[in-house]
Amino acid sequence: MNIAGFVAENILKGKMKVVHWRDIEAIDSVKDFLLDVRTAHTNTV
């Protein structure tokens, strides 16, 4: 629960930007970093 609270606080205070799946194409690879944490099984589905 603590981690969820930290993430929520960062989003609410503007420290972290939320990106939804439909926004992925618009990510600027020069200034933004996308970390894909899906498992190998998830990537094949």
Outline:
With 45 residues, the protein is mainly alpha-helical. It has a domain of 28 residues.
Q: Key features?
A:
45 residues; mainly alpha; 2 helices; flat
Describe this structure as you would to a colleague.
The chain is an all-alpha fold. The protein has a domain at 18-45. Helix content is 36%, strand content 0%. It is built from 2 helices and no strands. It has helices at residues 2-12, 40-44. The N and C termini lie far apart (29 Å). The mean pLDDT is 86.
Multimeric state: single chain
Q: What structural class do helix, strand and pairing data support? A: mainly alpha
How many beta-strand segments?
0
Largest sheet: none
Beta fraction of the residues? Answer: under 5%
Radius of gyration: 13 Å
What share of the residues lie within helices?
25-40%
The H-and-E topology, N to C, reads as HH
Shape: flat
Low-confidence stretches: none
Distance between the termini: 29 Å
Structure annotation, total helices: 2
Overall mean pLDDT? 86
